What we know:
This protein is α/β, with parallel strands linked by helices. It contains five helices and six strands.
Amino acid sequence: MPGVITKKIDHNRPWFSKIIKSIKNNEVIKIYNYNKSFNNFIDTYEIFSILVKLKKIKKIKGTFEISSSLPEKLGNIIKIIIKHFNSSSKVVAQGNTESHKIINNKIFIKKTGIKINKTKTILQRILKNYDKVC
């Protein structure tokens, strides 16, 4: 399940919020899977948008896992966050883990016709809102 980022950010959950806070505070960041693609987050704005669109669909069956689309390399995501906060955080790549997973939205999109925003788009919205609430 992806990490859900809300307007009232909990800096310890999901993991991604903790990374944002650490970068904002210029801390050293230790990251696994630095060069692997990542899309394991979504924000409540995106979820609301999806729910509004789902309401218009008469019947849909199934259980779906959704997250941002068009995965980005985790290292690129970290660089965007560092640049956004003009942070002096140092990144230490820790190697790769076998539990690394990309969430695939293809079945959800095929069954509903609903497209989910790209990872970069959702990230930019999260960072914009982060500035307002923190």
